[in-house]
Structure formats: C-alpha cells, structure tokens
Fold these 4 entries.
Entry 1:
Amino acid sequence: SGSDTFTFTFPPTIIVRSGGILLDQTTNKVIRFPFNSIIAILSGGGFGATGTVLQIFQGGVVGASFTVTLASGPFTCGMLADGSVQTYNSVTAIAVMSGDFTAAGTFLGGFAPSADICSGGCGIQVIKGVTLSTAGLNGVLNFKITSIAVAIGATFQLGTPGASTGFKFKFPITLSIFGGMSFVCSGGYIMLPPGSEFDISDGGEFSSSISVSIEIFDPLTGLAIGPLQTLGTLISGGTFKLTVSASGSVATGGTAGGLGSITFLAIRSGDLTDATVWGGGVAPSGTFSISIPAGITITISGATLSLEMVRCGVSGTLALGSGSDTFTFTFPPTIIVQSGGILLDQTKNKVIRFPINSIIVMLTGGGFSATGSMLQIFHGEVAGATFTVSSASGPFTCGMLADGSIETYNSVTAIAINSGGFKAARTFLGGFAPSADICSGGCGVQVIGGVTLSTTDLNGVLNLKITSITVAIGAIFQLGTPGASTGFKFKFPIKLSILGGMSFVGSGGYIMLPPGSEFDIADGGEFSSSISVSIEIFDPLTGFAIGPLQALGTLISGGTFTLTISASGSVTIGGTAGRGTTTEMPFSTSMMG
C-alpha cells in the first residue's frame, strides 16, 4: 500500500482459495517476483481487480511480465528459471524437476497436485528436460487431473516398473504429448474413462517395452466398455488422436503416413484380415502397424496389399503372396525382422514389389525363408530398380529411396533422408531411427546427399551402439549442440566416413572417441568447426583420457585424412595431403582442461 510497485525478494508460492483475494494496492499496479515463484488462484478465488502486472524481477533486472485480465480463478502464473512467465486459465502444477508425481520437489514452488487442491480439477504441465514419473501413484490417479501436457523434450512415464496391473485414470483426462510418453509396466492396460482424449502431436512419441492397449471403463461399475484399443509398442513420426465419447465409443485419427498409427498385436496365426487373429478382436484398418510375436505366422494372401500398413515388426513369420505370381505393397512399409523372425516369400515368381520410401531390415538372427527373392521398386505402375537376395539371414537392410534407387547394406542401417535430429523418426527412411533396442547388436547410419543430420537432441553423448556413420557427398553431419561447451562423446567404437561434410557446432569441449574408432575424410570431404577442436581418446571403463589430445583445428579439406585408434588407444594419422590441410592449434598441457 502506498508504493509504486511491490517486490518479493524470495520466490513465494501463493495459493488463493475460494473466497480469498490477492489485493494489489500499488500505485502503478506492478507486483514483482523472482524466478521460481508461482501464484495459483483456485475457483472462487481472485484478484482485487484486473490490470495488475505480474513481472519477473531477478538480480535487479526487470524481465518478462503478464497483465492480469481476469478477476477470478481458476488461474496459474509461474515464473520459470529460464526467465519466462507461464500462465494457464486453470489450476496447474508445473513439473520443473525430474521426479515423482507425488513429490513436492518435482513441481514449481512445491505446488504439487493433491486431492484438496484438485477438487475442482487441475492441469499438469511438464516442461522441457523434465521426466515426470507416476511410480508413486501405485497404478491409479485418484485426483481430478483434467489434463496433462508434456512439452517437447519432456517425458511422462506412466505406471510402475515391474507392475503387471497397468495404470488407471479415475477421472476423464486429456493427455497432450508434444514430447514423449512411455508405459513402463510389465503388463496391464492404460485405463481411461469416457470423456478422455489422448493426443500425440507431430514430433511427439509414445513407447512401451510391451505391446499395450487402452481399456475404456465405466466409472460407476468399473467394467470395461467395448473392445481394447491397441497401441502396441510405438507411436511416432506423425500425429495420433484417440477420443472417448461420453458413452464410451472411440474415434481414432492422425496424419497419413509416418508411424502415427495403431499397432495391432497378433495373438494367433492366420490371415491379416481375420479379426480373430488380433488382440481386441478387430482386424487392422486405416493407417496401422502390426506386431507378430514368435511362433505366430501372419499371411497376406493375394497379389496386392492395398491397406496402409506403415510398420511391421516380425518375431514370428510374415508370409506374402501365396498363390500369386508377384506380391505388391501399395503403400511403403517399414518391415523389421527380429531375431528368430522370418519374411516368407510365397509368390510363384519370387518377386516382392515395393513403392519408394519402403525399407526392410533384418536384424541378426532374422532373415528370409530362402535366397533368390527379388525385391523390386514398383511405383506409379512402373517397375524400377531391383535387388536379388543372396543371403538368407541378417543383418541386412534394403531401402527404396525417393530417387528410384535401392540401397542395400549387410548391416542394420538407418538411412537419413530428411534433415533433422538423430532421435527423430521423420529424419529416417520409413521412420526407422536408431534406438537402444534395434542397435543392441550394432547399427550403421547412412546420411544421403542433400541431408543434414543433427545430433543436438543427443545432448552431447551417443549412447547407442552405432558402429558406423557414413556421410555421402552433398550431406552434412552436425556434431554437438550449439552453445554447449561439453563437446561430444561416442560411447562405443565407431567409424566416421565423411565423403561430404562434418561440422562441430559446440562452443567448447572435445570430440571424445573410445579405442577401436576411426575417422576418415575422403578426397572432396570436409571437416569444419567455428572453434579449434581436438579429439580426446578415452578409456570406456574409467572414462579417463588416454594419451595426448589430437588437434583437428577448425578445418580439414582439400585431401584425404585418416585417424585410426588402436585397441590400446594409440593413434595413427595419415592422408594424401598430410597434415598440411589441417588448421592446427599447438598442443599444450593446458588443453587438457
């Protein structure tokens, strides 16, 4: 009262309950808060009047602000550590630290959801970089949480690891996944009441180590309503939406293509179109993926599959084209044959036709039923390039590129065809991005001409067992995170083959390689960096550096360059142009940091 503005020196958590009022008596209608403050106005609570400015004031510096336009709640305003002001027309708990749903320390200002606070409904916002766990809820969310929004770069972990009972939302909820959502139980369903919605935005992802389904239940009786809605183990690379009406009926949709589709899990052998073959008793339709467990054979009869099967995981057998001369996929599939899985060609002429943007991957232990099958591009009713299978077992990858060419590799290889991040499914042909599961036995990455592959989303460390990265002429491999001073570490031995360009985009640190690695730049290829950078060899067991730094400088071009690291960590350097094409920084002990 009587002052121009009012300033909180320390971050408060202000909760205005029903009937309560936050009264601004400053002359200029300005209330200032440091980072990590939060104001929550519950239903029935309010401000003395509209027009007050809520402003960040940190270290004597005025920051972002918000002008109050509503005199009553519900309303939440949070001052985040990044200097932003986040506001919601709801009572919203903001997860700012990785942790459990039940822990006050997980949320801004300790404002965690509770039965009391959420009696009129609450929202949850999970900000970038945060993982919100629900393990502490023991499989049931009993609070009236009406929405959970997961930002880009955030993760929502649903369920309790090892639990076989799934997870139940007691009240209708909207799940909005811009980042990642993972189901971590070993069994059970995701149980939703009528009036719920599950949205995955373009770039968001749902994953599970087991094939999981959504069960709609009646809140009054607890009994299931209608068939299960199969999600499978992965939804990514496109949008996905599942809406449950007030009566319990379900509508699903999403963008065409990509992996934005429901995964159907086979429970017995039979034809693709037989509803009894699939969990939930519904045959695949629309844009879908299928998963074939070990011991089960799924047959796609006839000469053509006109349904849009975007992904097929095969641990059993996928049999194609029984009784027909050839077999043709109308839409481009991503077929992944796991160890023990078989792709069975039953056509008379041993010809399987694919449109462009298809990919077939055989993991170690998976394979074809026999050699001699011809994999052929068939696009716009025109037969194109072909490849004849000469090995019955994996690892093997065959990709049908948009330029009409077929690329094959005697390895599990992800092919980057669009500029983007290393973890983004849309970056790779058929959405087949490297993952810990797929690459457990080792993977290669191929970056085709015209594509820039970024590693920003790896946060400075490649933890996957990537054994090789090949960058084609006209392609660029961007290593590191812009502005990061921690460099980039390859956890496993790798061979970097640069026929195009490789750029280090960090502001500091080293390129860290373990023994057994190799760094090759072909004639015409180039390495560049805005800062002078070096390679550090490290011991994978201890993490300590081995030997001196290997200075690369800011540019290597105009000739070949090879740096080879032996199993003991010793380094050999060569190239047609010698080190004369390397812009070097003199080595000194100070470079060791």
Entry 2:
Amino acid sequence: MPSKRIRQRIAKDAARLLYEGQEQELAEARLRAMRDSGFPERVTRRNIPPAREILDCVDALTLEREGENRPANQRETHLSALKLLWQLAPFDPRLVSADAGAGSCGATILLDVACGDYAGVRRFLDALGVAYVTEDPPSNAEQGYRFQGRTARQSQLTVQLTVHVTPIAGAAPARTGATADEFEAFVRRAYPDADLEALRNGDETWADPYVVFALLLQRLEGVKQKPEHHPEGDALYHSLQAFDLAREQFPYDEEFLQAALLHDVGKGIDPARHVESAVEALRGLISPRTEFLIRHHAAARRLRDGSLSGRLRDELISSPWRADLMALLEIDDAARRPGVAAPSASEAIDYLRSLAAW
C-alpha cells in the first residue's frame, strides 16, 4: 500500500476512534490506529498523519454521520478551543481534542501544556476564570498533572489540561496535538465566515496581563545564551538588566518599559523563533507600539549596521517609533554585564503595575 494511503487510513481510523469515544486523546487514538492498521511494520515517520489531518477527518466524519443534526455547539466549541490556545500561548499548548458532545452532555476540550511551575498554571487558570479541580500528582511526572473544570463564561464547556512540568526550558517530554497555528488553519477552513480577529481581540478580558508577563519571565530563568554574545548569564538576568536600564532613562514610559522587560520572553517558549513566539504569546496584552518594538528589536541591529534591506528597512526607517526602536537596541546591547545588580522579576512587574494604575 502506498505511503499516502497508509497515512490516510491511519488518520481516518484515529478519527473514528475519537468520534465513537473509544479513545479520548488524539495521540492514543493515532497510536491505536497504527497498531490496528494490519501493517504496523510499514508505518514510518513519513506516513504518520499529523494532528491537523486527524482533526479534519473527525470533522468530516461528524458531518457525514450527523449531517444537519450535528451538535449545534460544535462551532462554538472549536472557537472556544482556539481562544484557549491563544490565551495559553505562554505554555506552548497543544489541542488534543475538542468535542461538542451531544444533547445535554456538554462540550469537552482536552489541552496539553508545558510549564516549569505547576502552581503557575493554576494562577493563570484563575486569571482566565476557569474553575477546576486537580487530581493527585502522578508517580511519573511525565504523565502530567491534570486539571479539569468548567469555564466561568460557558458553563457547558469542560476544559481538561494535562500539564507537563518542565524544570528546564525546552526539556518538555514529547507531546502531540495541534498547535494554535495548526488549529487556527483548521478553523478557517471549517468556518470561513468566522470573525477570528473579533475572537482574538474581543471585549472580554480573559487574563490579567501582568500574570502572563510574570509567567513568561519565569520561563526565562535558566535559559542559556551564547556566552560570546551574552556574558552576563541567562535570559532572565539579561531582561531584568534591560528593564533597569530602561527605567533609568524612561521611568514613566510604560509601553517602552514593557518592551525592554519582555523583548526576549520568546526564548523561554521557542528559542529558534523567539521573536515570533514572544509576539504570539503577548498578542492582545500589549499596545501596538510595544509589539512593534519587540517584533523588530532583532532587525534593529541589522538596520544600524546597514545590512537590512527591502520593505522592512523602509518600514522601520519611516516608522514614528524608529527612535524608540534604536533606544531599545542600545539598552539591549548594554544589558549584558556580568555581576551587576538588577531588580527581581516581581519588582519589575510591581513597578509596571504602579504605572498602569495611574
């Protein structure tokens, strides 16, 4: 059987297992479908279906079997799942499944997140307004800690999260499921009329931004950087130095101070694409000016040395925030001194809160 047909068969079988409730988690359904395929020895990395393909098959199977009688809240469940993926961005979330249920059963969303601090997830869920109960910690930490409860905003929606506690950034056990980008692509195909910008930027305040900031900074502790570029130490120490230098120069500029403190938070999520990860994690929580400074702080160095070209160069040169961007670059360069005093993360957050309260 050709590799493509093997992948399609596994995807459809995994979708059926999820749809019929024989399996609750996408990873387990995929593994069982691979074992039951009749030719497990021919299953290779090339023909293992990704999460997004299995989710597409689940949706197609639901439509095929239920037609117009499919659960009316399937769309709302998918949109709620996408919103949660966005809001949980600091924890690199994966969507395992989003089932609208039937009748009065309600909807269930299964998510997998990674965090260096078990209690940090609880604080974040409190800020989101998710009521939850916790299970006893597992004997094997790689099994993950589980939360389950109902959101305050949709009483029929049950959210279950498996939390993998990762003491070292980037050391999470292998996890499966759809990323926010993958599930967003699925939602756009399934519901082309859905206003995702309104969903992302709606009036609801789902989280206290300073709770998110604190969690993102926490993930920077112990994140190593190249010593030839960062002799000062880990990414958290660098960020706190940058904040302190920015506060000396611009003590009342909340947006600039946020950019200085948070410009490298993406290194605690995905060091290979830390700028993009930071912008994604902070979306909806910071101003356009702060986002601009964080998004372009790496490009600013190429602008200064003359190696930047094209439309991005023109955009940065013509931006009203160009001077701010270059000021941030100077602070970024200066915040690399070993052994100097720097505020704690909580002190930096408290200072920003005091500015916001004015």
Entry 3:
Amino acid sequence: MGWFPSCTILFRRNRTMARSWGISQRIWAWT
C-alpha cells in the first residue's frame, strides 16, 4: 500500500491514467 498515495497523485496529474488506474486498482485488490 506504499505506492497507493503515489498512484493517487499520478491519477490527479494525469487524467489519462484513469484507465490504467482502474486496472491497477483491480490488481491492487488481488494483492
């Protein structure tokens, strides 16, 4: 969960990462 905040910041800076964020969120839930 250490990279969770970093992904949140990237998501805010890049809206295009919203798609990747959705996929990453699924993988994050698995882990």
Entry 4:
Amino acid sequence: MEVPTEMAESIEGFMATAMDPEDIADQVVEAIIERRCYILPHVEEDDSIRGRTEYVLARGAPFPIPL
C-alpha cells in the first residue's frame, strides 16, 4: 500500500520533531509520582490547548483538528 505523498511528508515532519521515547517515559513516571492526571509534554502547545478548551466552554461548534 502506497502512502500519499502529503501524508508521508506530514509524518516525516512529525517524526523529525518528535520527543525521544526515554524523555516521554521520564515525564510519565514523574506525573505518576506527582499524581498528575494530565501529561502535556510540550509547553509550546499550552496556548493551543487553552484556546481549544475556551472554545469548547463557549459552546463553539466542533471543528476538525488539522494534522
């Protein structure tokens, strides 16, 4: 099965910036020890998460999240 070029490029871009699995594992263990429910590894995404949450609370219509 051939992967469409656009999808392959998107996956390659994601993988190029992906966190190391060891770093993620460390964050998961730390969150468990601290009894945190949410594990959000990228602080750069905080504004995006905040905006989406505020939109939901404002009863905004659902919209697709771009990949």
